[in-house]
Design goal:
Strand order of the largest sheet: 6-9-8-7-10-1-11-19-2-20
Low-confidence stretches: 1-6, 8-26
Structural class: alpha/beta
CATH class of the largest domain: Alpha Beta
CATH architecture of the largest domain: 3-Layer(aba) Sandwich
Radius of gyration: 26 Å
Strand content: 15-25%
Helix content: 25-40%
Number of domains: 2
Distance between the termini: 45 Å
Mean pLDDT: 91
CATH topology of the largest domain: Alkaline Phosphatase, subunit A
Number of strands: 21
Length: 537
């Protein structure tokens, strides 16, 4: 009998031992820390031109030792960083996630407002009241939080509020962005931790002020810059981040100087260290926004010493960031991904100077002419109630009062708009929303970029080389290319250097991250995981 029980015990122990080994061998391996690097204005051409000037541990480490998605394109129309970032983080398009641009025309109050504006929230350190309430889909950061409630930690450090909120989604512990009037870190009460204590400490102990008041001069001798080859009399520049953008403005140039990038790195590293990100087997995430924009720039291409210097200094910041992450967490335990927004290689100004057809489309005069045309057809009324982001809004109430055929009025506007310089097409919104068939077509890309909650009644597109500008002459989106490519790199963790030439779209990034982290994909995700550079379970 003893022998019988001994045999049973040994058998159970054996199977338990085997099961334990199998469980260990099939245990999911995940990166302990995910670091997202979003760079406003980043272009692959710039990285290539400056490659010989970069340090080995910054951009070069990511581009040479990482995975280069060489044919990654945006499958939405360029309308600002908010929609670009939301599309990357959700794996979806504005048709589903709702973020159609940095701003939109609010039909309820007949005004253009920020996509993140929310009067139900409070600002912390700022009068801005913002949230992610218009982001209608979960993000990969949200899914990480939901997969590991109260365990996965996620933070965002950004230069601008729109970028901060879209990177943070709905569930980040805290997001922080730069206030370039009062020169401090600020946030919104929408996120549960409010202003994180590291940002608050920098505001109080002078750390923010120290970095934000650094005078910006060339990093190297001015004649060594590429810009000097086009201008032998190129003079050294000097900027003070606290100087005003214009004579009557309270806003400073801080956000378009290297000081902004230094602030992001400094706070990001403080959060990683003090919050112990990446210290256990539960993945954490930190999203960082940088910029290569310069004060008062008119060109998207690399034409100024200031632009070069922004890249060269950011290269050193990224090198320092990676060195510190390697020390504190280990780059073999960290997954880094780096991407930019949609930006044309050349601005309309530059194209025009080289006799290439291009221009800026301003809606103010155009809408006045459209309204005059409709008055000639239907009577002296205000037929246009608003316009923004290639969306024309008609006065539905007045059209109904006059018992007019709404679709006929829509078509009249479409026909008239085709005569405007720079306009490629004009379509009734119902027609755009109903587009199907080839998902790669220009009309499908337009349909992806529209959401029923914020769409106008007529939607236009512009000719190649043309960009829309608002009433302050600020671009509304910065790319009008039929296919808009963006640099995108993965680096670290278990990845080997590789160039992926297979065409992918930015909606494929979130599902790829989800698969690597072994978490559910965002709930509106339409992309597919990129399979070339890693083995998924």
């Amino acid at each position: 009998m003893k022998s019988f029980f001994k045999d049973i015990f040994l058998t159970i122990t054996f199977f338990f031992f085997i099961g334990s080994i199998c469980a260990q061998s099939t245990a999911v391996e995940r990166p302990r820390l995910v670091v997202g690097i979003m760079i406003d204005g980043l272009q692959q051409k710039h990285l290539d031109l400056l490659s010989g000037y970069f340090d080995p541990g910054g951009f070069k480490k990511i581009t040479n030792q990482g995975v280069n998605l060489k044919n990654l394109s945006y499958n939405i129309v360029s309308a600002g960083n908010s929609s670009d970032i939301a599309t990357v983080m959700t794996g979806s398009v504005p048709f589903y996630h709702g973020v159609v641009g940095d701003k939109y025309f609010n039909r309820i109050n007949d005004r253009v407002q920020s996509i993140i504006w929310d009067d139900q929230e409070i600002g912390i350190g700022t009068t801005e009241t913002v949230s992610a309430h218009n982001l209608l889909s979960s993000t990969v950061l949200d899914e990480l939080t939901l997969a590991f409630p109260n365990k996965a930690k996620s933070y965002v450090v950004a230069i601008d509020p729109e970028e901060a909120v879209m990177l943070g989604g709905h569930t980040a512990k805290s997001v922080a962005w730069i206030d370039d009037v009062y020169m401090k870190w600020v946030t919104t009460g929408y996120y549960r931790e409010g202003l994180n204590r590291m940002a608050d400490e920098m505001n109080v102990n002078g750390g923010f002020k120290t970095l934000s008041t650094r005078v910006w001069k060339p990093l190297y001798a001015i004649q060594t810059y590429l810009a000097a080859s086009k201008n032998s009399n190129l003079a050294a520049f000097e900027y003070h981040p606290a100087e005003k953008k214009s004579k009557n403005s309270s806003v400073t140039i801080l956000k378009n100087t290297p000081a902004a990038n230094s602030l992001v790195v400094d706070l990001g590293l403080k959060i990683i260290e003090q919050e112990k990100l990446g210290a256990d087997n539960v993945p954490d995430m930190i999203m960082l926004q940088f910029t290569v924009r310069t004060p008062h720039e008119k060109f998207f291409s690399l034409q100024s010493a200031e632009k070069e210097d922004m890249y060269l200094r950011l290269d050193k910041e990224i090198q320092y960031l990676l060195q510190q992450i390697d020390t504190k967490v280990g780059l073999d335990k960290t997954l880094v991904f780096m991407f930019g927004n949609q930006t044309d290689v050349h601005s309309p100004t530059e194209l025009g100077e080289n006799n290439i057809p291009a221009g800026y489309f301003s809606a103010n005069r155009s809408m006045a002419l459209v309204n005059s045309y409709l008055m000639a057809l239907y009577g002296q009324e205000g037929w246009i109630t608003g316009y923004y982001g290639k969306n024309i809004f008609l006065n539905k109430q007045k059209i109904e009062e006059k018992k007019l055929n709404f679709k006929e009025v829509q078509q009249a506007v479409c026909d008239f708009m085709l005569d405007f310089e720079g306009v490629q097409s004009a379509s009734p919104t119902w027609q755009v929303l109903g587009v199907g068939g080839n998902s790669q077509s220009e009309m499908a890309r337009l349909r992806n970029s529209v959401h029923k909650n914020s769409a106008g009644d007529v939607i236009i597109t512009l000719l190649p080389g043309w960009l829309e500008v608002d009433e302050k002459l600020n671009p509304v989106g910065e790319s009008n290319a039929i296919v808009s490519y963006s640099p995108f790199y993965f680096y670290g963790w278990q990845l080997k250097p590789q160039v992926v030439t297979t065409p992918y779209q930015v909606t494929d990034i979130a599902p790829t991250l989800s698969r690597i982290l072994n978490i559910p994909m965002p709930n509106a995700c339409i992309g597919k995981p990129i399979v070339e550079f890693t083995t998924f379970p």
